[in-house]
Every structure is written in structure tokens, then in C-alpha cells.
Amino acid sequence: MKTVKLTINGHPVEVEAGTNILNAAQKAQVKIPSLCYHPDLPAWAACGICVVKVKGLNRLVRACATPATEGLEVTTHDPELYGIRRTIIELILSTHPDDCLQCPRNNNCELQRLAAEFGIREAPYGKRLRDLPPDDTTGSLELHPEKCILCGRCAAVCQGMQGVWALEFIGRGEKMRIAPAADVSLEESPCIKCGQCSAHCPVGAIYEHSHAPEVYAALADPTKHCVAQIAPAVRVALGEDFGYEPGTLLTGKIYAALRRLGFDAVFDTNFGADLTIIEEGTEFIERFAHGRGPLPLITSCCPSWTDYMEKFAPDFIDNFSTAKSPHAMVGALTKTYYAEKKGLDPKDIFMVSIMPCTAKKFEIQRSEEMSSSGQQDIDISLTTRELCRMIKSAGIDFRNLPDDEQVDSLLGAYTGAGTIFGATGGVMEAALRTAHWSLTKERLPTMELKEIRGLDGVKEATLKVAGKDVRVAVAHCMGNIEIVLDKVRAAREAGEETPYHFIEVMACRGGCVGGGGQPYGATDTIRRQRAAGLYRDDEKSAQRCSHENPMIQQLYAEFLGEPLGEKSHQLLHTGYYKRKPYKR
């Protein structure tokens, strides 16, 4: 690794070549303020707050976009730089609403924090607010352009990381704003509701549409039997809002918090992940071992990926697994199997899923199969962030809740395979564990398939399953999936064998641990910590393969019959259709 040496405020620093000054300064324990920079994204120096002085230059440079070079002498803070930064912040505030108390980013806003750090108490520049209406047409995300500070992060994420191009800059000068491409509504745009725009926005210009009021109303209704389920990635991220390190496993505390909020039953989406593996794994064996369907088989757990595929890659519809996502399966079974067991009318059950994802709000009503129980299977999907706010507003002392509270086991018991669904590669790993057992009646020699773990955008491997080579690919971030799909397309056109037998796709970087509804501030370091928490949960599990789950075995014996059977297809599977990227 090539390194360079420079000085920051007189202190020597050695960093990897190519490191920008902003990150180099952190090695000297110096924080340079910035609003537009995010480690996930290419620096483009929009805000100008990170300006610094370099000895020998008669101009200021922007630290986020200037690489550290050998012998550089940098001054990051002095009275002149303080004044410049303060003026920039004051100018941004002059075009920004002051409704902080009503904003969901209150106390977690990067602009608000900078204003406090710089001690801004007066407004030297008159307000120049723009009357720009909000856009809540998707039902998943809300765009509030009057709060936009034109940092460009959302557009960079949507275009670069996700390859969707639903957001862009429109207009020039003071009339410039962020809006859906072609100036349509978000619902009419190619938006896949992944929420990465909201996860990267430094202020409250884009955030999830909150459905907490409907949940409060149901919890207060004595005629409703309220049920909650939590996704794998929620348990390793929710604690960040309560002072825990990212990746801290808080499953028992979350169960306890949900009961104290008033839920009558608490299930776990990990159970649904185990069930998904049984259905999807069987589907893979049917295609791979028996030739009953086209290869590659592509996972379907991520609703943003499903939305993307229907809009941008409908030529792969026949390759898509028909298995519903885990939370959708739990929703369907809650209003059928659980209702039957408890003697409840499905109309009286109110099912809430706690997800790391904003697109789940779209998924729960994406098609008629999402009402396979005769009712809408999941009534409301909340993000991790929404649950954090509910716990705080209910006065629950989360840190002092018991750690060992248990899930309601009927639809809650899970294996290690179910919990790793929350990390990129986890669905693939869990499926191959069970596929190997189904074909050989033996466990894989090792449970940890490290070839498909980690944050590489595309991971490829050839794995031995039942003595056969299985070629797999794992992609996360929508901007990476076309690399994989184009390889398959090229093989089709050439009449060659498919390069992959099995493909896993997650829309968000790192998988669900980096979902658009997770606590703000995710970086690759935090994503790795969250994923590590899930892998620890897997390693300590008594059962580490989905087919070993005794409650899954009981479910098939008592209710479903067999994987891919008639009842399973009715309740646990769905279909797809080609759609236009733009609705107009």
C-alpha cells in the first residue's frame, strides 16, 4: 500500500495515497465540517463548508475533493475559515424552514448540528423560502423539497449507487431543486422505494412516510388483536438510537418493548426466513437437480429489487423465485394458521411488521397475492426508525428492559439460517445449507460460506453442493445488478450455459443491515458491525439450518402439507409482471 506524509495543523500524518484531506484530518483527530460529503459517495464539493488552507496556494481548497499529497501542509481551522464556514451555514439557513420541532430529523440533523456547533443564534440574512409542495405519492417516502439544501446526496445515491435515476437537479440558480426526473411525482417516476435517498439525506428533505398513527389507533382498539414481527436486521440496529454500539444483538429487549407497547403477540420474521428457505430452496432443487424451470434462480425477498426487475429487467421474470418475502409469509400465516389455532377472526387481527426497509410499505399491497388470507396479510409496515420513536414516546426505558424475553413460538422460533437473511449473501448461504441437506441428508462440511460474505458489490463463487458445482452470484446496491444480469444475457444470446445457477440480490448496500429504514448514519464500518451481530446470532443458535426448525416442521405437518404444495402456493407465493419505469 502506497502512503503519503503530510501535516495537518502542524501535526504529521501518514495516510494511504488517494485519501482526501477531510479523511486525512481524522487521523490527526481533527474534524472538518461538511454537509455534502458522505463516505458512500464520490465527493463533489457542493456545500463549500469543508474549505481549508494549503501552504503555497493563494486559494482555499475543499477538503472532501482534494487528495492528500506528499509534503502537503494543511490548516483546517483558523478565524478566517471559521468566518467563512459560519457565513455558508447562515446562507443555507436563510433558505431553510425553521420548523425543526415538526421535522423527523429534529436532534438528528446535520445542518441543525452544525448551526449549534457554530453557535448561530441570529439570522443576518432575510428568509427566502420557496413554496414547494411535498410529494407523498408513493405511500413509502415523502419528499419535502422546501427543506432541501441541494447537497446532491440523494441524486448521487439514486443515480450512482442504485442506477434508478428517479431524482435529479431541476432548474438553475436560485430556482434549482431536487425532484423526480422529468418533474413527475415520485409515484410516476422510476422510484423503487428503497429509501437510500432518505438514509443519505443530511436534513429532513426526504424521509419515510410514517404509519405509526394507524398502529397507535389499532393498539387502542379493544376489538383488535395486534400482532408484531421484527425483521432480522432490526435486532442489530435499533439499539443505536438508545446508545448501543452498532451490531449489538437486542432481540429479547425488542420483544419486551413490543409487548409493553401493547401488542398481543410477538412473532419473528426470522421464522418467515426459515420458511422462505424451505420454499425457495425446494424451488432451486427443482430447477437445478430436476430441470423443472429456467436457471438461474433469482431471489425475491427484496421488494425494491422486485420493483426494479419488473420495471427494468422484465426479461428475468421467469427466473424469479415466486416465494414471497419472509415477512409476507408470516403475515399470511398469522391470519390463517395462527387465527385458526387461536380461534380468531382474521378481520380482527392487526399485523404490524417492523422492517429495516421503506419499500416494505409498498410491498404489503403490491398485488392481490398480498391478501392471500382473505384480508390484507400485513396491515402496516414500520421502519426501524419508526419503532425507535414509538418506544421513546411510550416512555419505555429500553436499556433496562429484560434481555431474555421470548418470542411467541408458534410463528417465532428461528434458526441461525433465518437470522443471516439480514446481511448480503445471507439468503444464498441459508438456501445452500438446506439445499445440500435436501439432496444428501447431510450438513454442509462448513456452515460459514465466507466466499459470499462481505461488502464487495458483486461476489461470485463456485460452491460444492451434493458433489455438484453450483455457480452463484451475490449483488447488493442496485447499481451492481446489471453487471450480473448482462453476463446472463450474453450467455443466452450466445447459446451458452448460464454463468450462474443461483443469484441473490439486495437493493441496499450491505443488504438489509443497510436498509433505507434503519437508524441514520450508516457507513461501511457500521454495516459490517451490524452484519457481524447477525453472524454471531447464527453461530450461537442450536439449529443453524432452516429445515431443522421444529416449528417449521410442525407447520408443514399440521397445516401446509409440503413445500410448493397447493396451500403453500396459495399463501406463500406470488407472481410478477412487466411494468413501465414511468407511469405516465
Structure description:
The protein has 3 domains: about 5-90, Roll (Ubiquitin-like (UB roll)), CATH 3.10.20.740; about 95-120 and about 130-210, Alpha-Beta Plaits; about 215-570, Rossmann fold (3-Layer(aba) Sandwich), CATH 3.40.50.1780. It contains 18 helices and 17 strands. It has helices at about 20-25, 80-95, 110-115, 155-160, 195-200, 210-220, 250-260, 270-290, 305-310, 325-340, 360-365, 385-395, 415-420, 425-440, 480-495, 525-540, 550-560, 565-570, and strands at about 5-10, 10-15, 50-55, 60, 75, 140-145, 165-170, 175-180, 205-210, 225-230, 265-270, 295-300, 350-355, 380-385, 460-465, 470-475, 500-505. The strands form 5 sheets. Strands 2-1-5-3-4 form a 5-stranded mixed beta sheet, sandwiched between helices. The protein has a 4-stranded parallel beta sheet with strand order 11-10-13-14, with helices on both faces. The chain has a 4-stranded mixed beta sheet with strand order 12-17-16-15, sandwiched between helices. Strand 13 (about 350-355), helix 11 and strand 14 form a beta-alpha-beta unit. Helix 8 (about 270-290) packs across helix 10 (about 325-340) and helix 8 (about 270-290) packs across helix 14 (about 425-440). The chain is globular, with a radius of gyration of 25 Å.
